[in-house]
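Input structure tokens:
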């Protein structure tokens, strides 16, 4: 007479090499991630700098704030074209370090340009820009068509 033997799934612990395969995979992942992370960091260093930018909206306007400390007002250009706001400029390096031994240089200098698509139509003739304490604030009033409107509901 044949007897039935109940099947059971083998436990991972019975596979002695499984742990070594996991270690090998982790090591391969680490080897591939390290050079790529280093290349991304190097690319940022060689591509110049990009100032941080915030864009927010209320019911009447869009506001863009850009961090550009250490710059002069005349070194910043702001333009609006076909629903996109462009901010560009140049932060100039300091001359006093030319004859010095520099041990750390982490601040970025050079040209930058940021362009953002605006989420609503704006009145180009009413746009204002202010620069104070290293923050450029561009205020873009929305067109009347872009502003939210209240619609009354009539009851019959």
């Amino acid at each position: 007479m044949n007897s039935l033997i109940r099947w059971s799934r083998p436990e991972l612990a019975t596979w002695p090499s499984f742990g070594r395969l996991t270690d090998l995979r982790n090591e391969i992942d680490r080897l591939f991630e390290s050079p790529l992370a280093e290349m991304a960091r190097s690319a940022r260093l060689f591509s110049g700098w990009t100032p941080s930018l915030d864009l927010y909206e209320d019911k009447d306007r869009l506001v863009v704030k850009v961090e550009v400390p250490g710059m002069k007002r005349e070194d910043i250009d702001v333009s609006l074209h076909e629903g996109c706001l462009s901010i560009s400029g140049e932060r100039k390096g300091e001359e006093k370090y030319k004859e010095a031994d520099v041990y750390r240089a982490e601040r970025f200098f050079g040209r930058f340009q940021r362009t953002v698509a605006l989420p609503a139509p704006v009145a180009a003739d009413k746009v204002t820009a202010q620069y104070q304490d290293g923050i450029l604030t561009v205020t873009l009033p929305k067109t009347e068509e872009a502003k939210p409107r209240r619609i009354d509901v009539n009851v019959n």
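The beta strands are 53-57, 61-67, 76-81, 84-91, 110-117, 128-132, 135-141. The chain has a mean pLDDT of 81.
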